[in-house]
Specification:
This protein is an alpha/beta fold. 48% of the residues lie in helices and 10% in strands. The protein is built from 16 helices and 9 strands. The protein binds zinc ion. Residues 154, 223, 244, 354 line the site of zinc ion (ZN).
């Protein structure tokens, strides 16, 4: 068919008219979805599994580690401040007390500093934050109109192969520990470091899992290798969490959760808290970011100091250029986990302040309602949205507390020492 200029003109008129009719209707529908999303989030406790604000403050160029200068009452240059947390209707946050695990350490000192820094952030704004170490604390914070603030360790490096140190971190208020970050620990394999060193967990790694069960510390499998996930699911008597991971069935990057692990979650009771990080959500971004990150990790491992390692990772991540990621892509991961593991096993773990690449419109702590609005447009009910928002992870945590009460009554703290097998030399 030949298209004449006048036919083209009349087609354009038709299209323009259609657009004029469609846009306000669509805007109104979006408005309605957003309104309903906000109402749902206000009626429940929105829990985010991972936010790296403590590291953002530790690395704040103008005043590293200064919680007074990094004022959360003002708009910050990062992803998190109080006004935006309120706009996002956040009810509870696991603040990540991340330290890099590359190199030979020391690990306990930076880990303790990060915990102390996070505690100071929480204490600085008593009208906004309430330190929480139990599910009951989270409910109490919600009733008081404050954001429940929990601590989660990212990587088991800080325990320096000591179960006594693990227990001391619990006493400081740490309520989850990711077994690894991007580097293997001496007792558990990470997804991002190849080749694997232990094929999952060593016997000491298994004892770490058992002791976490006894303490009532959630086991976070984000960043762990699939073999570590399998070994942990075999041993753990409590539900596991993935504090910030997406689905490998949608994007085949090593950081995401494989379908065979998702299928184990109904019997374990665990929850995958979906991250918004573009490199794990958008396969195309993943293809660009993954090799770049592996190269950065190699460089970081060779760095002379912890500070130098942190600088290499921060500046390197910020320099990576990537294509656009959408809110819909994040919703695709959520719906995939729901399809494979079930509606009771999916949650939210944004990872704000932990990375510079975000989906458009889902790029800081004010934006959670937009993701829930997208799911409303896809037909999610309020009951389903509440499970995703926080009910699932709070149920998993409550179950973990019950397991701990039973195990503490049944056995003493573990006295097992780290096995110094030659294969575990760094
Ligand atoms: Zn992480």
């Amino acid at each position: 068919m030949k298209i004449t200029p006048s036919a083209l003109l009349s087609m354009s008129v038709v299209l323009l008219t259609l657009a004029a009719v469609a846009t306000p209707a669509r805007a109104a529908e979006q408005d309605e979805s957003l309104k309903r999303a906000i109402a749902v989030l206000e009626s429940t406790i929105l829990v985010d599994g991972h936010n790296d604000l403590p590291m953002a403050i530790r690395q704040f160029a103008k005043a590293p580690g200064d919680v007074a200068v990094y004022d959360l009452r003002q708009p910050t240059e990062g992803d998190t401040d109080i006004a935006r947390l309120r706009e996002g209707r956040l009810g509870a946050q696991f603040w990540s007390v991340y330290i890099p695990g590359e190199g030979r350490g020391p690990f306990a000192r930076p880990q303790l500093e990060q915990i102390e820094l996070a505690r100071r952030i929480i204490e600085r704004y008593p009208d906004t934050f309430q330190f929480a170490t139990s599910v009951a604390d989270v409910s109490e914070a919600k009733r008081a109109g404050r954001i429940a603030s929990m601590l989660g360790m990212e990587g088991g490096y800080g325990i320096e192969n000591s179960l006594g140190a693990l227990r001391a971190y619990y006493d400081l208020g740490v309520r989850y520990m990711a077994l690894t970050h991007n580097a293997h620990t001496d007792w558990a394999d990470a997804a991002a470091q190849l080749p694997p060193r232990h094929n999952g967990l060593t016997p000491f790694g298994e004892e770490v899992v058992r002791e976490m069960n006894r303490l009532g510390m959630l086991i976070d499998l984000s960043h762990a290798s699939p073999a570590t996930m399998v070994a942990t699911l075999r041993i753990s008597e409590a539900p596991v969490i993935f504090s910030h991971s997406s689905a490998r069935g949608v994007c085949d990057v090593p950081r995401n959760v494989p379908d065979d692990i998702l299928r184990e979650l109904p019997s374990n009771g665990g929850v995958v808290m979906i991250t918004f990080v573009a490199g794990f959500v958008n396969c195309e971004v993943g293809r660009i970011v993954q090799p770049a990150m592996a190269e950065l990790a190699l460089r970081a491992r060779a760095a002379a100091s912890t500070e130098e390692r942190e600088r290499i990772m921060r500046e390197g991540m910020a320099a990576i250029k990537t294509p656009v990621t959408t809110i819909g892509m994040v919703a695709d991961h959520i719906e995939h986990v729901r399809r494979v593991a079930g509606i009771d096993h999916v949650g939210i773990g944004g990872d704000f302040d932990g990375n510079p690449n975000w989906p458009e419109g889902l790029d800081d702590v004010s934006t959670y309602p937009r993701l829930f609005a997208e799911l409303i447009r896809r037909g999610w009910t309020d009951t389903e949205l509440r499970k995703l928002a926080g009910e699932n992870v709070l149920r998993a945590w409550e179950q973990t507390e019950k397991v701990a009460a039973r195990l503490r009554a049944a056995r003493e703290p573990s006295t097992k020492l780290f096995e110094s097998a030659p294969s575990s030399a760094r």
